[in-house]
Amino acid sequence: MTVISSSSRDGVPPPPDESSGVLETLEGEDFTALFTRHADELHRYLARWVPMAADDLVADVFVSAIRTRARFDSSRGSVRAWLFGIATNLLHTHLRGRRREREAYARAVQSHESDSHEGRVVDSVDAQVKARQFAVAVERLKQRDRDVLLLIGWAGLDTTEVAQVLGIPVGTVRSRFHRVRQQLRAACPTIVLENNDD
Amino acid sequence: MTENMWTEEELDRAIADQPAGPVFTAEARERALARMVAAGEAPRPVKRWLVAAAAVTLVAGALVAVPALWSDDSGPAASATETLRRAAAATTGQTRPSAGQYQYVVTHSWDLGSATTGAGNPISALFHSVREQWIPADRSAEWLERRATLDRRWLVGSDEQAKTEGDGGLLQEDTSTKERRGPCGDYPDVNEELGGDPDWGKPCAERVGNWGNLNPRFLSSLPTSPQALYDRLWSDSMGHAETALSNAAGVLASPEASPELRSALYQALQNLPDFQVTEATANLNGQVGTALGVHGDVNRYDIIIDPETGRYIGTRWVLLKPGTDMWEGLPAGTVVSFSAVDFAVVDRAGDEPPTK
Question: Is residue B99 part of a domain?
Answer without folding.
Answer: yes
